Amino acid sequence: MDAGEVRAARRGSPPAPQDAPLPAPQDEAQAHLWASAAVVSVLVIALLIIWKLVQSRKSSRRAVLLVGLSDSGKTLLFVRLLTGIFQNTQTSITANSALHRVKNDKNVNVTLVDLPGHESLRLQFLDKFKAAARAVVFVVDSVAFQREMKDVAEFLYQLLIDNTLLKNAPPLLIACNKQDVTMAKSSKLIQQQLERELNTLRVTLSAAPSILDGSSSGSASQLGKKGKEFDFSQLPMKVEFVECSARGSKGEEGNADIEELEKWLAKIA
Questions:
Q1: What is the rounded CA–CA span in Å between residue 102 and residue 106?
Q2: Residue 166: HSE in the Cβ half-sphere, 13 Å Cα cutoff
Q3: Distance separating alpha carbons of residues 6 and 1, to the nearest angstrom
Q4: How far is CA 130 from the centre of its chain?
Q5: How far is CA 42 from CA 106, 111, 152, in A?
Q6: Cα separation of 210 and 248, whole Å?
Q7: What is the CA radius of gyration of the chain?
Q8: What global pTM score does this model have?
Q9: Contact (Cβ atoms closer than 8 angstroms) between residue 55 and residue 42
Q10: CA-to-CA distance for 157 and 15, rounded, in angstroms?
Q11: In a structure prediction context, what are the per-residue pLDDT tens digits for the chain, which is 269 residues long?
């Protein structure tokens, strides 16, 4: 062994390299916790953005549409809500609209829109205003209902399968008007008969859907739940029935009996 080898032996071999220390279990758990919190924060922010968009779209819809057949009393209801005064009206050939302050603690305004009920005009005006509908009041002549039931059901069917209304799902009120007349049908009877008539209409139109669907642009093909008897609870919008009288039980000099309608407007505003 020469002198160089001796010196190397005296110094000894270099130390073996050591592995990096493993992270402590608590550090790993904390990292997972931070990652989970970040994901949750992103989801919460996304949901808030979606909620804001939905609310802004809803708040932009301020129109309450008054629809129904001719002579159902829509225009008198419109006048009574705005002024409280009885007024002789004529069949509308265009839409009437005005701001109405709702009787609730919010003190908000809605735009009442009285749409013509004539068969040749009603769908045209419905198409014009439906996207702005915050709610819809479908006015029924409770006295003539038995005679007009098929026409009422056909118009209501067209309204209920409209894609815009299905998507926005505005609350729907069936206002059973002219309850001051002795022969008026009750709201319960009108609801039952409308559900039966709409179910029959749905079955009939399933074989020839173009009969009514072609009359209004943007219509769905199915009303309610397939394979079940139709009732209003199957719809995406909430449907309620009230009894009212635009004329009032005391005639032209008295007040209208529209308290339930006004309560509903206060609720949906």
A1: 8
A2: 17
A3: 7
A4: 11
A5: 34, 38, 49
A6: 41
A7: 33
A8: 0.76
A9: no
A10: 89
A11: 555 554 555 555 555 555 556 556 666 767 777 766 667 666 666 555 554 544 444 457 799 999 999 999 999 999 999 999 999 998 889 999 999 999 887 788 999 999 999 999 999 999 999 999 999 999 999 999 999 999 999 999 999 999 999 999 999 999 999 999 999 999 999 999 999 999 999 988 877 655 555 444 556 567 888 889 999 999 999 999 999 999 998 877 789 999 999 999 999 98
Tokens in use for 137?
Answer: 């009041």
CA 130 – CA 227 distance, rounded (Å): 29
Task: Tell me the β-bridge partners of 98.
Answer: 112
CA 136 centroid distance within chain: 9
CA–centroid distance for 137 within its chain: 12
The 10 Å Cβ neighbour count of residue 252 is 10
Place of tokens 């995406």: 236
- Cα 26 from Cα 118, distance rounded (Å): 75
CA 194 to chain centre: 20
| Interhelix angle 74-83/259-268, nearest 10 degrees | 80
Query: What is the C-alpha to C-alpha distance for residues 164 and 170, in angstroms, rounded to an integer?
Result: 10
Four-residue CA torsion sign, 221, 224, 71, 139: negative
